[in-house]
Amino acid sequence: MKINIKKTLSISLPLLLGVFLIWYSYNKFSEEQLREIQHYFSNANYRFVLISVLCGFLSHLSRAYRWNYMLKPLGYKPKIANNTMAVFVGYIMNLVIPRSGEFSRALIINKYEDVPYDKALGTIIGERVADMLILLIIVASAFFIQLDVLKDFVLSIVPIKNILILLFILILLGLAFLWFVYKTNNVLSNKIRGFVTGIFDGILSIIKMKNKWGFIFHTLFIWVMYVAMFYINIYALPETSNMAAGTVISAFIVGSFTIAFTNGGFGSYPFFISKILALFSIPLTLGTAFGWIVWIAQFVMMVFFGALSLILLPIYNRNK
Protein backbone atom coordinates (compact mmCIF):
# COMPACT_ATOMS: atom_id res chain seq x y z
CA MET A 1 0.00 0.00 0.00
CA LYS A 2 2.79 2.44 0.96
CA ILE A 3 4.72 1.58 -2.23
CA ASN A 4 1.65 2.32 -4.38
CA ILE A 5 1.14 5.67 -2.62
CA LYS A 6 4.81 6.59 -3.11
CA LYS A 7 4.67 5.64 -6.80
CA THR A 8 1.46 7.61 -7.30
CA LEU A 9 2.95 10.69 -5.66
CA SER A 10 6.18 10.44 -7.70
CA ILE A 11 4.07 10.57 -10.88
CA SER A 12 1.28 12.93 -9.86
CA LEU A 13 3.14 15.66 -7.93
CA PRO A 14 5.52 16.71 -10.77
CA LEU A 15 2.59 16.51 -13.20
CA LEU A 16 0.42 18.68 -10.94
CA LEU A 17 3.30 21.17 -10.64
CA GLY A 18 3.44 21.37 -14.43
CA VAL A 19 -0.33 21.91 -14.66
CA PHE A 20 -0.12 24.62 -11.97
CA LEU A 21 2.68 26.46 -13.80
CA ILE A 22 0.67 26.39 -17.03
CA TRP A 23 -2.42 27.73 -15.24
CA TYR A 24 -0.38 30.32 -13.33
CA SER A 25 1.36 31.69 -16.41
CA TYR A 26 -1.66 31.72 -18.74
CA ASN A 27 -3.99 33.12 -16.10
CA LYS A 28 -1.87 36.29 -16.07
CA PHE A 29 -2.20 36.83 -19.82
CA SER A 30 -4.93 39.06 -21.25
CA GLU A 31 -7.08 38.00 -24.22
CA GLU A 32 -4.89 40.11 -26.49
CA GLN A 33 -1.72 38.44 -25.19
CA LEU A 34 -3.22 34.98 -25.71
CA ARG A 35 -4.03 35.90 -29.31
CA GLU A 36 -0.45 37.11 -29.66
CA ILE A 37 0.89 33.72 -28.48
CA GLN A 38 -1.44 31.99 -30.94
CA HIS A 39 -0.10 34.27 -33.70
CA TYR A 40 3.48 33.16 -32.94
CA PHE A 41 2.49 29.50 -33.24
CA SER A 42 0.61 30.10 -36.50
CA ASN A 43 3.47 31.98 -38.14
CA ALA A 44 6.38 29.82 -36.95
CA ASN A 45 8.67 28.29 -39.58
CA TYR A 46 8.46 24.62 -38.62
CA ARG A 47 11.22 23.59 -41.03
CA PHE A 48 13.71 24.85 -38.48
CA VAL A 49 11.85 22.93 -35.77
CA LEU A 50 12.24 19.72 -37.81
CA ILE A 51 15.97 20.38 -38.20
CA SER A 52 16.22 20.81 -34.42
CA VAL A 53 14.44 17.48 -33.97
CA LEU A 54 17.05 15.86 -36.24
CA CYS A 55 19.79 17.28 -33.98
CA GLY A 56 18.00 15.79 -30.98
CA PHE A 57 17.77 12.39 -32.69
CA LEU A 58 21.48 12.45 -33.57
CA SER A 59 22.37 13.25 -29.95
CA HIS A 60 20.42 10.20 -28.73
CA LEU A 61 21.99 7.99 -31.40
CA SER A 62 25.43 9.21 -30.32
CA ARG A 63 24.52 8.40 -26.70
CA ALA A 64 23.74 4.83 -27.77
CA TYR A 65 27.15 4.52 -29.47
CA ARG A 66 28.94 6.06 -26.48
CA TRP A 67 27.36 3.55 -24.12
CA ASN A 68 29.35 0.69 -25.67
CA TYR A 69 32.63 2.43 -24.84
CA MET A 70 31.75 1.95 -21.17
CA LEU A 71 30.27 -1.54 -21.49
CA LYS A 72 33.18 -3.00 -23.49
CA PRO A 73 35.72 -2.95 -20.58
CA LEU A 74 33.17 -4.99 -18.59
CA GLY A 75 33.09 -7.66 -21.34
CA TYR A 76 29.86 -6.62 -23.10
CA LYS A 77 29.13 -5.15 -26.52
CA PRO A 78 25.37 -4.84 -27.09
CA LYS A 79 23.90 -4.18 -30.52
CA ILE A 80 23.65 -0.47 -31.29
CA ALA A 81 19.99 -0.95 -32.24
CA ASN A 82 19.20 -2.27 -28.75
CA ASN A 83 21.20 0.55 -27.16
CA THR A 84 19.34 3.16 -29.22
CA MET A 85 15.91 1.74 -28.43
CA ALA A 86 16.83 1.48 -24.72
CA VAL A 87 17.85 5.16 -24.74
CA PHE A 88 14.53 6.23 -26.31
CA VAL A 89 12.52 4.06 -23.94
CA GLY A 90 14.42 5.72 -21.09
CA TYR A 91 13.38 9.17 -22.31
CA ILE A 92 9.72 8.22 -22.70
CA MET A 93 9.77 6.70 -19.20
CA ASN A 94 11.09 10.01 -17.83
CA LEU A 95 7.96 11.63 -19.24
CA VAL A 96 5.84 9.26 -17.15
CA ILE A 97 7.94 8.91 -13.98
CA PRO A 98 10.68 11.54 -13.53
CA ARG A 99 14.24 10.10 -13.35
CA SER A 100 13.04 6.54 -14.08
CA GLY A 101 14.67 6.47 -17.51
CA GLU A 102 18.11 5.38 -16.25
CA PHE A 103 16.61 2.34 -14.52
CA SER A 104 14.56 1.48 -17.61
CA ARG A 105 17.66 1.58 -19.82
CA ALA A 106 19.49 -0.78 -17.49
CA LEU A 107 16.53 -3.18 -17.35
CA ILE A 108 16.17 -3.31 -21.14
CA ILE A 109 19.85 -3.93 -21.83
CA ASN A 110 19.81 -6.59 -19.11
CA LYS A 111 16.82 -8.32 -20.70
CA TYR A 112 17.95 -8.25 -24.34
CA GLU A 113 21.76 -8.24 -24.08
CA ASP A 114 22.35 -10.08 -20.76
CA VAL A 115 24.28 -7.16 -19.27
CA PRO A 116 23.97 -7.39 -15.44
CA TYR A 117 21.55 -4.74 -14.21
CA ASP A 118 23.90 -3.30 -11.59
CA LYS A 119 26.81 -2.94 -14.03
CA ALA A 120 24.56 -1.39 -16.70
CA LEU A 121 23.20 1.10 -14.16
CA GLY A 122 26.75 1.92 -13.07
CA THR A 123 27.77 2.79 -16.64
CA ILE A 124 24.70 5.04 -16.97
CA ILE A 125 25.67 6.83 -13.74
CA GLY A 126 29.20 7.21 -15.15
CA GLU A 127 27.69 8.76 -18.29
CA ARG A 128 25.73 11.21 -16.17
CA VAL A 129 28.93 12.24 -14.38
CA ALA A 130 30.58 13.03 -17.74
CA ASP A 131 27.47 14.89 -18.94
CA MET A 132 27.27 16.87 -15.73
CA LEU A 133 30.90 17.94 -16.17
CA ILE A 134 30.13 19.32 -19.65
CA LEU A 135 27.00 21.05 -18.36
CA LEU A 136 29.00 22.67 -15.54
CA ILE A 137 31.52 23.96 -18.09
CA ILE A 138 28.65 25.49 -20.11
CA VAL A 139 27.14 26.96 -16.94
CA ALA A 140 30.49 28.46 -15.92
CA SER A 141 30.90 29.97 -19.39
CA ALA A 142 27.39 31.44 -19.28
CA PHE A 143 27.96 32.93 -15.83
CA PHE A 144 31.19 34.47 -17.08
CA ILE A 145 29.34 36.06 -20.00
CA GLN A 146 26.09 37.01 -18.22
CA LEU A 147 27.08 37.05 -14.54
CA ASP A 148 24.73 39.74 -13.21
CA VAL A 149 21.60 38.52 -14.98
CA LEU A 150 22.04 34.82 -14.21
CA LYS A 151 23.14 35.41 -10.61
CA ASP A 152 20.02 37.42 -9.79
CA PHE A 153 17.76 34.96 -11.62
CA VAL A 154 19.17 31.87 -9.88
CA LEU A 155 19.13 33.46 -6.43
CA SER A 156 15.51 34.52 -6.91
CA ILE A 157 14.19 31.02 -7.64
CA VAL A 158 16.67 28.53 -6.13
CA PRO A 159 16.99 28.11 -2.32
CA ILE A 160 20.72 27.42 -2.55
CA LYS A 161 21.31 27.31 1.22
CA ASN A 162 18.54 24.73 1.77
CA ILE A 163 19.79 22.63 -1.14
CA LEU A 164 23.34 22.55 0.25
CA ILE A 165 22.07 21.53 3.70
CA LEU A 166 19.91 18.78 2.18
CA LEU A 167 22.82 17.57 0.03
CA PHE A 168 25.10 17.42 3.08
CA ILE A 169 22.51 15.38 5.02
CA LEU A 170 22.01 12.97 2.11
CA ILE A 171 25.78 12.42 1.80
CA LEU A 172 26.02 11.65 5.53
CA LEU A 173 23.08 9.23 5.36
CA GLY A 174 24.59 7.53 2.31
CA LEU A 175 27.96 7.08 3.99
CA ALA A 176 26.28 5.76 7.16
CA PHE A 177 24.28 3.27 5.08
CA LEU A 178 27.38 2.03 3.24
CA TRP A 179 29.28 1.70 6.53
CA PHE A 180 26.45 -0.38 7.99
CA VAL A 181 26.22 -2.61 4.90
CA TYR A 182 29.96 -3.30 4.77
CA LYS A 183 30.25 -3.89 8.53
CA THR A 184 27.40 -6.40 8.77
CA ASN A 185 27.40 -9.92 7.39
CA ASN A 186 24.00 -11.31 6.45
CA VAL A 187 22.15 -12.31 3.27
CA LEU A 188 20.68 -8.84 2.66
CA SER A 189 23.99 -7.05 3.28
CA ASN A 190 25.80 -9.45 0.94
CA LYS A 191 23.26 -8.77 -1.81
CA ILE A 192 23.52 -5.01 -1.33
CA ARG A 193 27.34 -5.19 -1.35
CA GLY A 194 27.25 -7.13 -4.60
CA PHE A 195 24.85 -4.63 -6.14
CA VAL A 196 26.91 -1.61 -5.01
CA THR A 197 30.11 -3.26 -6.25
CA GLY A 198 28.48 -3.82 -9.66
CA ILE A 199 27.46 -0.17 -9.85
CA PHE A 200 31.00 0.99 -8.98
CA ASP A 201 32.40 -1.37 -11.64
CA GLY A 202 30.13 0.31 -14.17
CA ILE A 203 31.14 3.80 -13.07
CA LEU A 204 34.87 2.96 -13.09
CA SER A 205 34.60 1.52 -16.60
CA ILE A 206 35.05 5.11 -17.80
CA ILE A 207 38.65 4.87 -16.48
CA LYS A 208 39.27 1.37 -17.89
CA MET A 209 38.05 2.01 -21.44
CA LYS A 210 40.70 1.92 -24.16
CA ASN A 211 39.08 4.31 -26.64
CA LYS A 212 38.79 7.35 -24.38
CA TRP A 213 38.99 9.74 -27.32
CA GLY A 214 35.94 8.09 -28.89
CA PHE A 215 34.06 8.54 -25.62
CA ILE A 216 35.14 12.20 -25.39
CA PHE A 217 34.15 12.83 -29.03
CA HIS A 218 30.64 11.43 -28.52
CA THR A 219 30.24 13.32 -25.23
CA LEU A 220 31.12 16.61 -26.92
CA PHE A 221 29.00 15.75 -29.97
CA ILE A 222 25.97 15.01 -27.76
CA TRP A 223 26.19 18.43 -26.12
CA VAL A 224 26.89 20.25 -29.38
CA MET A 225 23.68 18.68 -30.72
CA TYR A 226 21.80 19.67 -27.55
CA VAL A 227 22.84 23.30 -27.95
CA ALA A 228 22.19 23.20 -31.72
CA MET A 229 18.76 21.68 -31.07
CA PHE A 230 17.90 24.72 -28.94
CA TYR A 231 19.71 27.32 -31.03
CA ILE A 232 18.17 26.37 -34.38
CA ASN A 233 14.69 26.95 -33.00
CA ILE A 234 15.34 30.69 -32.62
CA TYR A 235 14.98 30.91 -36.43
CA ALA A 236 11.50 29.39 -36.27
CA LEU A 237 10.20 32.80 -35.15
CA PRO A 238 11.32 36.00 -36.90
CA GLU A 239 11.12 37.85 -33.57
CA THR A 240 13.74 35.57 -31.95
CA SER A 241 16.04 35.11 -34.95
CA ASN A 242 18.38 37.90 -33.79
CA MET A 243 18.74 36.56 -30.25
CA ALA A 244 22.27 37.05 -28.91
CA ALA A 245 24.47 34.02 -28.27
CA GLY A 246 24.73 34.84 -24.55
CA THR A 247 20.93 34.93 -24.29
CA VAL A 248 20.61 31.59 -26.09
CA ILE A 249 23.15 29.88 -23.81
CA SER A 250 21.52 31.32 -20.68
CA ALA A 251 18.08 30.09 -21.76
CA PHE A 252 19.51 26.70 -22.77
CA ILE A 253 21.02 26.21 -19.29
CA VAL A 254 17.81 27.19 -17.49
CA GLY A 255 15.83 24.84 -19.75
CA SER A 256 18.26 21.98 -19.08
CA PHE A 257 17.70 22.21 -15.32
CA THR A 258 13.92 22.73 -15.45
CA ILE A 259 13.41 19.41 -17.25
CA ALA A 260 14.00 17.70 -13.90
CA PHE A 261 11.29 19.73 -12.13
CA THR A 262 8.32 18.04 -13.80
CA ASN A 263 7.63 15.12 -16.14
CA GLY A 264 10.12 15.87 -18.92
CA GLY A 265 9.78 19.60 -18.28
CA PHE A 266 5.99 19.67 -18.79
CA GLY A 267 4.83 23.18 -17.91
CA SER A 268 8.08 24.11 -16.17
CA TYR A 269 10.21 24.32 -19.35
CA PRO A 270 8.24 27.05 -21.20
CA PHE A 271 7.48 28.84 -17.91
CA PHE A 272 11.13 29.30 -16.93
CA ILE A 273 12.30 29.86 -20.51
CA SER A 274 9.90 32.82 -20.75
CA LYS A 275 11.15 34.14 -17.39
CA ILE A 276 14.84 34.02 -18.30
CA LEU A 277 14.22 35.53 -21.76
CA ALA A 278 12.22 38.33 -20.14
CA LEU A 279 15.42 39.39 -18.35
CA PHE A 280 16.88 40.04 -21.80
CA SER A 281 13.92 42.27 -22.80
CA ILE A 282 12.07 39.55 -24.71
CA PRO A 283 8.27 39.81 -24.14
CA LEU A 284 6.69 37.09 -21.99
CA THR A 285 4.29 36.16 -24.78
CA LEU A 286 7.14 35.62 -27.23
CA GLY A 287 9.25 33.74 -24.66
CA THR A 288 6.30 31.52 -23.75
CA ALA A 289 5.57 30.65 -27.39
CA PHE A 290 9.25 29.95 -28.05
CA GLY A 291 9.52 27.72 -24.95
CA TRP A 292 6.48 25.69 -25.95
CA ILE A 293 7.70 25.27 -29.55
CA VAL A 294 11.05 23.91 -28.36
CA TRP A 295 9.46 21.65 -25.73
CA ILE A 296 6.67 20.26 -27.93
CA ALA A 297 9.11 19.41 -30.74
CA GLN A 298 11.28 17.32 -28.41
CA PHE A 299 8.26 15.85 -26.62
CA VAL A 300 6.77 14.59 -29.90
CA MET A 301 10.13 13.13 -30.95
CA MET A 302 10.59 11.27 -27.64
CA VAL A 303 7.03 9.93 -27.59
CA PHE A 304 7.20 8.78 -31.22
CA PHE A 305 10.59 7.05 -31.06
CA GLY A 306 10.04 5.84 -27.49
CA ALA A 307 6.73 4.18 -28.39
CA LEU A 308 8.25 2.80 -31.60
CA SER A 309 11.15 1.34 -29.61
CA LEU A 310 8.77 -0.37 -27.18
CA ILE A 311 7.06 -2.03 -30.15
CA LEU A 312 10.24 -2.96 -32.04
CA LEU A 313 12.36 -4.25 -29.12
CA PRO A 314 10.58 -7.64 -28.79
CA ILE A 315 10.33 -7.96 -32.59
CA TYR A 316 14.01 -7.20 -33.18
CA ASN A 317 15.01 -9.63 -30.40
CA ARG A 318 12.41 -12.30 -31.20
CA ASN A 319 15.07 -15.01 -31.59
CA LYS A 320 16.43 -14.37 -28.10
Mind explaining what this structure looks like?
The mean pLDDT is 83. With 320 residues, the protein is mainly α. It has one domain (31-315). The chain has 13 helices and no strands.
Brief characterization of the structure:
With 320 residues, the protein is mainly α. Helix content is 81%, strand content 0%.
What's the helix and strand layout?
Blueprint: H1 2-27, H2 31-42, H3 46-71, H4 80-96, H5 101-113, H6 117-145, H7 147-157, H8 160-183, H9 187-208, H10 212-232, H11 245-258, H12 268-278, H13 284-316
Helix pairs in contact: 2-13, 3-4, 3-10, 3-13, 4-5, 4-13, 5-6, 6-7, 6-9, 6-11, 11-12, 12-13
Looking at this protein, list some descriptive labels:
13 helices; mainly alpha; single chain
The DSSP helix count reads: 13
Shape: globular
- Helix/strand order: HHHHHHHHHHHHH
Query: Which structural class is indicated by helix and strand composition?
Result: mainly alpha
Number of β-strand runs = 0
Number of domains: 1
Mean pLDDT: 83
Helix content: over 70%
- Percent range for β-strand residues: under 5%
The Cα radius of gyration reads 21 Å
End-to-end C-alpha gap: 36 Å
Low-pLDDT segments, ≥5 res: none
What does the main sheet amount to?
none
